[in-house]
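Lab meeting, item 3. Inverse folding demo.
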């Protein structure tokens, strides 16, 4: 999703800004830009190509300054064209962007993440004042609005402007008349402050990763915060404009290692991240000597004793991990569980229950829809909250009562892999902790589950060794336009995740169904041109699943089956089988999803698509 980097420094800050944009490329974008104050006027460079092309513009145009803002944009309002790219300028009433640029009349420069819901209303009012709009974006509205309110103090103008905005935003702004000042605001979209040693520079960014190698001193801005950066000093204020103390917004040391984003011997980040899963699972389970509610934070035991239901809120891949967890929570811990798509939950009338544990799942911890759903649930009186999240410093962790932080490490590929499997590991630990608290599992069962979890890294290595067989499947899939994924019970969510992966990066239309639903409609799609991928563990539903597979074969369908070794499913004409190394019981989904990740990856590779940056998608979805 969109990325912001901004700074005020005693030196040329532009190299830091463009390096920060490069560190944020993994989030997804379709245009980029940088703007600076050269001491006399505002200057900028924008591009609808990669950041590397922007760097060439900057270097050829000798753009340099101690004050600047930069941005990567993922289009919402207006196509990905240069005139819609950030930063946006306001030149004052009666002046178009082209006129203002040629005459050096830019007054306000601004970058924005998020969506302004009342931009049409504000646009009409500003046009009535004589402001000329040159883009289709909601962002240009904010630049003109701040210009219209400016009376010598940029911070005061920003404060007045944000009071008029409805929606989500993270902003960084500077003004022609205050050359060594950048101000910012956060509401519903992440923004952090980076503090350099001895006050030589201060920065704003949408992600601490953007400042890796520049500073590890980070202040996490909270909802409604305003921030003022000047040479040698900064201050943070609440929405009322009153300064907040260092205790209220402390400086935290954050290790955002840029080395984590290096490809090493792999062709793509997605491939690297698939093969990092044994390590990621091991790291996520590090320190887990036994099952105790306190794995999820102080006071977890009393919360777990209090609740009698679980509500899971998540989006995308995280939603599918929640769907799998429902089977665990109900089947092992005996707790009624509901899983909701976060983007839908707060827009319907639901029945709140204060004895519900609200569980959010998010890789970034900044997913806008999930954060909004969490806040809605809390407003309804469901105050017992817990998150499974990969970023310890994220808004999701800060806003939940309890948390389990997975340790997948930085995930660059848009299509999530290691974040998904570590989420499943965290959710299984939650299942065991709740089952223990509720007296639903014995000590022997707990011990066996823990033993199986500790063996996961070794088991995953064995699954990754199946890659050559998956590649042969991918050669077939690359010639297809559609695919059907089937699973039953606990493995239906894994089928859903497999279909999502194939869609995301190969652009092949794929759908997933519970295998028992075949005869209720999807069977009409089955022909020899429709590959049918089946997840077939040796569980209590295996014989039912075999019957469903025969339904496919009887219609001329071609099956691709991921089968446990002891299922007695044999290769034959129209029946392609990859045998999993071992049956893994309740934890089987963590193993079965890996070949589906590899299938999507190698199919996309064969088709020549942009594996890590699939079209129209972004890594961190920080807008609704």
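The presenter then showed the designed sequence:
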């Amino acid at each position: 999703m969109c990325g912001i980097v901004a700074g005020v420094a005693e030196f040329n800050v532009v190299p830091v800004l463009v390096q920060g944009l490069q560190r944020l490329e993994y989030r997804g974008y379709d245009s980029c830009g940088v703007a600076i104050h050269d001491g006399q006027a505002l200057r900028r460079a924008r591009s609808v190509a990669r950041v590397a092309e922007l760097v060439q513009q900057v270097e050829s145009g000798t753009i340099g300054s101690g004050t600047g803002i930069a941005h990567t944009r993922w289009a919402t309002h207006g196509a990905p064209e240069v005139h819609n790219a950030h930063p946006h300028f306001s030149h004052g009433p009666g002046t178009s962007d082209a006129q203002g640029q040629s005459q050096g009349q830019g007054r306000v420069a601004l970058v924005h993440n998020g969506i302004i819901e009342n931009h049409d209303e504000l646009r009409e009012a500003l046009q009535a004042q004589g402001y000329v709009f040159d883009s289709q974006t909601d962002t240009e509205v904010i630049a003109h609005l701040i210009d219209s309110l400016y009376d010598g103090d940029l911070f005061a103008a920003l404060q007045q402007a944000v009071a008029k905005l409805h929606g989500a935003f993270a902003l960084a702004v500077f003004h022609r008349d205050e050359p060594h000042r950048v101000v910012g605001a956060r509401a519903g979209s992440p923004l952090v402050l980076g503090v350099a040693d001895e006050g030589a520079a201060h920065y704003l960014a949408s992600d601490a990763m953007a400042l890796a190698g520049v500073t590890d001193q980070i202040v996490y801005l909270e909802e409604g915060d305003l921030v003022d950066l000047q040479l040698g000093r900064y201050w943070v204020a609440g929405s009322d404009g009153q300064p907040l103390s260092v205790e209220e917004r402390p400086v935290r040391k954050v290790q955002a290692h840029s080395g984590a984003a290096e490809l090493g011997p792999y062709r793509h980040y997605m491939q690297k991240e698939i093969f990092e899963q044994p390590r990621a699972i091991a790291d996520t389970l590090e320190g887990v000597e036994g099952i105790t509610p306190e794995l999820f934070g102080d006071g977890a035991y009393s919360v777990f004793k209090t609740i009698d239901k679980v509500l899971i809120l998540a989006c995308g891949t995280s939603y599918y991990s929640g769907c799998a967890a429902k089977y665990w929570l109900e089947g092992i811990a005996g707790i009624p569980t509901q899983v909701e798509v976060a983007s839908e939950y707060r827009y319907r009338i639901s029945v709140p229950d204060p004895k519900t544990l609200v569980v959010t799942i998010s890789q970034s911890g900044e997913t806008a829809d999930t954060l909004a759903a969490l806040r809605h649930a809390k407003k309804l009186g469901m105050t017992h909250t817990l998150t499974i999240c990969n970023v310890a410093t994220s808004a999701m962790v800060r806003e939940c009562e309890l948390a389990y932080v997975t340790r997948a490490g930085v995930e660059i590929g848009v299509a999530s892999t290691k974040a998904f499997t570590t989420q499943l590991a965290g959710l299984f630990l939650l299942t065991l902790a709740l089952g223990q608290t509720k007296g639903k599992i014995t000590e022997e069962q707990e011990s066996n589950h823990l033993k199986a979890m500790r063996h996961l890294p070794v088991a995953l290595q064995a699954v990754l060794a199946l890659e050559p067989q998956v590649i042969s499947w991918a050669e077939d899939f690359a010639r297809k336009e559609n695919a059907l994924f089937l699973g039953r019970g606990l493995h239906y969510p894994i089928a859903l995740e497999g279909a999502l992966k194939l869609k995301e990066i190969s652009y092949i239309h794929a759908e997933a169904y519970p295998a028992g639903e075949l005869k209720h409609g999807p069977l009409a799609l089955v022909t020899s041109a429709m590959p049918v991928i089946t997840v077939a563990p040796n569980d209590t539903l295996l014989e039912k699943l075999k019957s469903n597979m025969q339904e496919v074969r009887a219609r001329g369908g071609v099956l691709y089956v991921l089968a446990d070794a002891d299922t007695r499913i044999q290769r034959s004409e129209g029946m392609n089988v990859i045998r999993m190394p071992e049956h893994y019981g309740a934890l089987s989904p963590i193993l079965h999803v890996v070949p589906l990740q590899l299938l999507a990856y190698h199919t996309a590779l064969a088709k020549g698509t942009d594996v890590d940056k699939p079209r129209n998608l972004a890594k961190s979805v920080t807008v609704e």
